[in-house]
C-alpha cells in the first residue's frame, strides 16, 4: 500500500463491473454536462423543463425549534477503571439528562429558519425552499450533498486508501440504500427458471438484521450465514468466512460475492468488530473477490466503558476530533481495492423519520446507484434535506436570512455535529450501563429460604446446592449499539426433561408480558437468517433494547426482566407452562415468527 | 354493472396475481396483527423494538409559514364564450396574482406548527414529532394516510365500481410509485438469457414521459408505442390500442400486459382523454387482460377555456365539490375489474421536493406494493408527512398545540385543499392562455415589405403569394397540464431541398438559444420512446412549458419563441445553418439526445 502522505499514489479501485446486475448495466449514462452551457445562458427563457413555479408552493418558509449541539452530556472517550463488569456508577449515571418538558422547562433551543429565497447564488451554499422544494438532482440537495461528502471524506473516514477516495450519494435511509445496492450488484434468480450456477449468495452474520434478509431473499438470493463470536463475523475456524468460501459447494449456487454486515453494535448481538478482525476479513474478500456492504447505523455509539482495550486503535490519519479518532474505523479505512459499500443514516443521529442517509463507495459504483435513484426515489424529501442542511450549515452569507442550529444563529457545523454525536453516545452509554448492571446482578438463580448449611452439602438434597449457584443466562456487555443479547441456558431449568427447550423459551416470553413483569423483548428467532439456525439455537436467545423505553425506566424494566427470568426458573409444574401457552397453542403458530419480525422489522 | 346505490353489490376486483413478478410473489406477508395485543398491554416495558428515544431527536417542533387556501384566484369551471382560439383576455389575464415578496408585501399566511407531542392518543389523529420522526408503517404516516385515503375514496374518485373500492399507499412521488408498480407487475427479462416468449411489454403513448421508459427499459421490457391523436392514446385505427394488441407478433415477446399513460395534460403532447375514449380503451384492456397504470400529476389542471365540450361530462356520483365534479374522471371511475393502478403526487399541488405521492388500486395489489415498500423506502420522510398532515388537518383536539394552514389555526381541510387546487388551476390556465394567444397570433409567416397588390397575383412571382399565407407550425390549445406541443412543417422552409429537415430542426433549436430570442425549448426527440419515432417524426415537434418561467414573462418568452421561428423561416442560406450548427457538428452527437432528457427527466 502507498504512503499516507501521497493519496494520489494510492491504487485505483478495482473494476467491479462484472458484478453489476443486468438491469444496472442496461441503464444509460447521462450525457447531461454538454447541455449545461445552454441552461446558463444569461437571460435565457426557460420553457423547456416541466417544473412548476416555486411561487406556487404553499410553504413560504420552514422553521423549527432545534437542540443546541451540547444538549446532552458526553461520556469519556477512554475507558475508565474499574473493569467493565463492575463499572463506576457515578460517571455513567442516567441522572443528569433533563427530560423534555414543554413550557418554561424546555431545554435551550435555537430557532431554525429556512427562507424561501436565500439570495445565495452558489448551489453548493444555497439552502432555501425555491431550490429544496423544486425537482432536484439524484445525488442529493447540492448543499447537503456537499456537506456530507466533505464530512465523510475528511472527518468520518479521513483515510480511504484508493486513488481519489470515495464518492457519496444521498438515500432515503439505509433500507433504501441497501435495496439499491443489492439491485445494482445482483441479478434476480428463481428456482426452476434460472440455472443454479447463476444463483447469487449473500453472506450474513449467523444472527442478523432481518430486514436485509427480507430484501435479498425474494430476489432469489442464497442467504449464507457465517459463524459469529462476541466481536461479530468470524474470519477463521469452523463456519467462519474462510471456511464458508473455501469449501463452497457450487451445487447450491455461485460462491457468494457479497457480505451484508453490521460491524458496530451489531443488530441483534451487539458485536463490535476489531481492526484486527476487519483486516482478516478484508484479506479474504480480496482473495475471493467479495464485496462488503457495511451497514453501520450505530457506528458512533461505541462504549469505551465496556472495553478497556477497544480504544487501543490508533487512526492512520486524524479526523481532527478526539471523539471520532477514538472510534473503531470503518472497513473503508482498509479498502485499498474499493470493494466496500458503506451505508450511513441519520436515523439514529437525528431521527428515523428523516428517511435520510447516504452511501459511500468507489465512484463507479456510486454512478450506477445514481442511475437507479433517478428512476426510483429521485432524491430524499426536500423538507428534510433543507432542514438538516440549515441545521448543520446555517446561513451562507451576511444577507442570507436562514438560521441554523447554533445559539448564535449559525449552523452546528462539523464541530457541533460531532458534539451532538458525543452527547448521544453519552445518553446511550448511560442507558446501556443501567441495563447491564441490573442484568449482571441478577443472572444467578438464588433460591432464598432453601439455603442449606454447609454441613448438609453432599446430602441426598445435593441438587439444590448446585442450583443455587446457577447462571440462568449470560450476556456480553455491549461495546456499541442499542442492544444486549441475552443467552439462556434452558438445560438448567427444573422442567428441562418434561418440556422441550423451545417451548420453555416461548413460555418465558409470554410470562414476561404478564404482571408484574410486563416487558416485551425480541425473541432470538426474529434474527435467525435460516430455518436451521432458528430451530437449533435461536430460542435460547433474546434481544433487549435499551434505547426505546423512557430513560428513567431502563433499570426498572431490566429488573422486571430479570425478576421474570428468576420466577420462570422456579416453575416446577408442566401445567403452568401449558397454561402460559394456552392462547398461543390455540393460535397454532409459534409467536416468534416472521410476524413479530415485521412488526419490528424497521428497527 | 351494479347499481350505484349499492356499492356492496359491485363485483369483486379480478385476480391479477398471474401478473405478479416472481420477486413480488416471493415476498412474505406480514402476520403482524396477532402481536398487536402484546404491544398494547398497559404499562408494558418496551425493550423489544430497536427504535431510538424520541427525546433524542434534535427537532423539538417543526413550523412554517404557509399559504391560506385562497391565495390564488380560480378560473371558472365552465367554458366561456367566445370559442377557445379567440379567448377573452380579461378573465384569464395573468395580472392579479401578487408576486411573492418578502417583508410587508407578503401575501397573508398562516403559522404552521407541528408539536413534539400532540397529546392526541388516536394514531389516525396524531400529528406530532414523537410519532412522525419515529420509525413508521409502510402505508404512510397514519393520520396522513387516513386523510388521503378518505379524500381519494370520497372526493377524488367517489365512484369506483368494484366491491369495497380501492386502497391507497403513500409513495415518495410518482417516479417511486411507478418503479414499485413495475417491480410488482413485471419480471426482469434479458435477451440471450430469458426466452423471448417471456419478454414483458409496456404500452405507451407515441410520445411520452421518458422517465417511465428509463424505468422500464433497463428491466428488458419491450416498449410498445400506441398511436395518439389530440386527446391521447387511440383505441381504434392503425397503430391504435386494438390494432397493436390484436395483431401482436409474439416473436417480439409476450403481448404487453401493461399500459403506462398520462391521461390529462399528457407529457409532452398535453392530450386529455375524454370519457368516451377511456371507455373504449378500458373495454380493450378487459378483452386483452391489460393493466392500466394511470400517472396523472396534472389531473386537476384541466382548462375549460380550451374546450367548450369538455365539461359536458356528468359524474356518476358527486364529489361534493363543483370543481372536482367538473373534471374528467380517472380510469378508476370505469374500473369495475380493478385493473387500474393510479399514481397521484403532491409534486404539482404542493411541491416536487416533497417527494410525496400515493398509489390507488385494488387492495390485493396495494398489499404487494406495501411489501416492496417495507424493504425499500419504508415510508416518505416524516418531515414532509407531518407538515403536510398538519397543513391540511390542523389540531385534532382542543388541547392539541398543533396549528394548521387555515387563518384560524385549523387545517385547510378538504374544502381548503380543493380551493387551493382551484387557485392553482387558475394560475396555470392564465399562463396557458397567455402563451397560446401569442403562439396563435404568430403561426403564419408574414413577409412584410414584399406584399403584392391583387393584380400581381398569378404572375411569375406566385410563390411569394403562397408563402405569405403559410402556417409554419401548429398546435392544439391544451385542455390540461403544463405544456404546449408545437409541430413544425419544415417542408415549407426555403432550404427544404438543400438541408434535411432534422438538421433544420436542430438549427432552429440553436437559433432560439441565441440573442435576441433566448429561449430554451424541449426537442420532441426527448419524448420519443423508440428510435423509429425519433428518426421519422420527432424532429418536427417541440414541447413548450408555461409553468417554469416567471409568470409575467410567459407572453414575452413566447413572443421570442415565435420571433425565432419567423426569423428561421427567413434564412435562405445553407451557410447560415452550418454556422448555427458549427459547435454541435464538432461535438459529434445530436443535441436532442438522452442527455437533455436526463437533464429534464424529472419533469
Brief digest:
The first copy, chain A, is built from 19 helices and 15 strands. Residues 86-91, 93-102 and 590-603 of chain A have low confidence and may be disordered.
Report on the structure:
Two copies of one chain form a homodimer. Chain A has 603 residues and is an alpha/beta fold. Chain A has a domain at 424-599: Aspartate Aminotransferase, domain 1. The first copy, chain A, is 30% helix and 12% strand. Chain A contains 19 helices and 15 strands. Chain A has helices at 22-26, 36-39, 129-132, 142-156, 174-185, 210-216, 241-246, 275-288, 322-325, 363-374, 382-393, 413-441, 462-467, 501-512, 531-536, 554-568, 574-580, 582-587, 594-599; strands at residues 45-46, 59-67, 109-114, 167-171, 201-205, 222-226, 258-261, 291-295, 340-345, 357-361, 473-475, 483-488, 519-520, 522-523, 541-545. In chain A, strands 4-10-9-8-7-5-6 form a seven-stranded mixed sheet, with helices on both faces. In chain A, strand 7, helix 8 (275-288) and strand 8 (291-295) form a beta-alpha-beta unit. In chain A, helix 5 packs parallel to helix 6, helix 5 (174-185) crosses helix 10 and helix 12 runs parallel beside helix 16 (554-568). The longest helix of chain A has 29 residues, at 413-441. The first copy, chain A, is globular, with a radius of gyration of 26 Å. Mean pLDDT of chain A is 89; it is low at 86-91, 93-102 and 590-603. Chains A and B meet through helix 1, strand 1, strand 2, helix 5 and helix 6 of A and helix 1, strand 1, strand 2, helix 5 and helix 6 of B. Strand 13 (519-520) of chain A pairs parallel with strand 1 of chain B.
